[in-house]
Amino acid sequence: MCCNGVIFADVKFREEDKARRFQLRGLKVVARKGAPPQQGSPPSSPAQGVSTTFQLPQPCPAFDGTRCLVYAQRPDHCRRFECFLMKEVKAGRVSGAVALRRIAAARAAAGRVEVLLEAFGNRQENRPLAVRFRQSLKWLETGKAGPEALALGSQLTLAMHRLNLLLNRWFYPGS
User: Helices marked H in 59-146 — which ranges?
Assistant: First the structure.
């Protein structure tokens, strides 16, 4: 769920990732200019005092649905990330069987959101789930939605809330 846009909207590259290498492999890399420089990194232009950050939008185009096609060369963020659930399994506080049930529940919750987004007409599968959800809510806020769309929007909001509860409880890095 890290790679398919459920947990993350994008992967931020570190300097050592060499974003150009990923572009050469045909992956879409987005440059964000104007971000304040990160602590310990020099700005891209001393006069501007800003840096350029590079991101790989999710869902990751290198994810084929079951595996990473650039696994050996994946970005450092991907290499180092371990969800909270994985940390709990490694520490022996959660069994593998319980972890698999939690993963299945989160996948089912994400699947429910997907179904509702499609019913809502948002079929942009190349966009992160949270982005698609926010796009759908913005459309509802225009006041152009009829009663059926409003009811669907309510179901979608509730489904996204349930998914976020699961993700926050089991997957996001804990302290």
Answer: 76-80, 84-90, 96-120, 129-141
- Nearest-angstrom CA–CA distance, 125 and 56: 16
Q: Hey, what are 53's tokens?
A: 């950050």
Q: Name the residue ranges covered by the structural domains of the chain.
A: 10-74, 84-170
Bridge partners, residue 172, by sequence: none
Q: What digits encode the pLDDT tens for the residues 68-103?
A: 988 888 888 888 889 999 999 999 999 999 999 999
The pair of structure tokens assigned to 65 is 């649905």
According to DSSP, residue 50 is labeled: B
Place of tokens 């942009």: 124
Instruction: Using CA atoms of 4, 51, 27, 59 in order, give the dihedral in degrees to the nearest 10.
Output: 10
Calpha distance 132→141 (Å, rounded)? 14
Please check whether residue 89 is in contact with residue 95, taking contact to mean a CB–CB distance below 8 angstroms. Answer: yes
